[in-house]
Structures are given as C-alpha cells and as structure tokens.
Amino acid sequence: MLYEQITPKTPDVYLSIANCYKMTKNYDRAVAYMNSAIKLDPADSDLYYNLALIYLDKKDLKGAQRSLDKAVGLNKHNIKAVKLAKHVAQRGTDEALNKAHSAFEKRNYQETLKILFEAQKKDPQEPQIYYYIGRTYDAQGKYPQAMENYQATLKADRNFDAAYFAIAQILERYGRGKDALEAYERFLGGDSRDKDMIKKAQERMLELSKIYY
Length: 213
Known about the structure:
Elements: H1 11-23, H2 27-40, H3 45-57, H4 61-74, H5 79-105, H6 109-122, H7 127-139, H8 143-156, H9 161-173, H10 177-188, H11 195-212
Helix pairs in contact: 1-2, 1-3, 2-3, 3-4, 4-5, 5-6, 5-7, 6-7, 7-8, 8-9, 9-10, 10-11
C-alpha cells in the first residue's frame, strides 16, 4: 500500500492507511493503524470517532461505544460523535431488549434481569429497560420491585402507557381499587394499540366504577 511508504508517519497518514484497510474490510489492520494515529495525538476527538466507524463496520458495538465515549469525553462539542454515540447506544439497547425478551419467554428471569441491568448501566434513561425489569419482577410475584420500576418507567417517559396498565394491575392486588381505576383511566387516555390491554382495562374500569362511583 502506497500510504505505508510515506514518511514521516503523522496522524493523518495513519488515518488514511486505516481508511484504506477499512475499505478492503481488513478491519484488524484498520484498527491497528487508527491506534497508531491515536498514540501520536491522543487528544484528537475525531481520531476516536473514526476508530468508532471502523468498529461499526466490524459490527463491534462495544468497541464503537468505547471509542465514541472517548471522543465525546475529549470534545463534547463534537456533534457527529455525540449523534453517533446516541445511535450506537440505542442499537445496543435494542439488542439487549431482544435478548432479554428471549430469556423472559423461556422464564429464565435471572438471565433476563442480568441482561437488563447491564443495559441499564449503558443507557440509564431508556424507559423500556425499566418497564421490562418491572415485568420480570411482576412475573415472579415481586410486586414492590415491579412497582418501583414501572414508576421509574413513567419518570423516564410519562406517556409510556403500558406502565399505567401494569401499575393498575398491581394496585388491584393491593386492594387499592380506586387508585387502580385512575391508573386504568390514564392508560386508556393514551395511544396504546394493544387490543388485549385495552379490552382488559375497559372491563376493569366498568367493574371498579360500580364500586367507587
């Protein structure tokens, strides 16, 4: 490769060599040359951003996230790194939720929680993570923990309708029918398209309304 013959080796030269290897899908060599560039200029946020791009092509989300965290840490105004970091974090969250759902369907609740807690560390503002942690505790009859996570879901996203339904169900178990009625009302006032949940909420509202109104 012609770039490899250029001297002296500067960060830009190493970056160019890395991109050439990236284009030929020789990702290990590309990463090696990017790291050489970073050694020469470890304060350059863009170098870490470019390293993240290589990791993404390599389908290594963890490597990409580490590189982007470093890029943003060096320069919080590196907009392209900030945007890509959010995108990568969401992809990682989606993968974790899919794995957690698979474990949940197999009733492997310990594994489900392990996956979700790990995802929560990386994406602590994602309401779906709290919701599925709540569902996992709910399935085990651990209602206080489930309630705590459903409430955390709503703190992250007050329009997360399914959390209102789940809270209403637990409130009924606690004998707090009037509070449950209000939670069902909040659920039905949203835009959920889950027909089973909607039907169940409507039925429970009719029954509870007879008692409290």
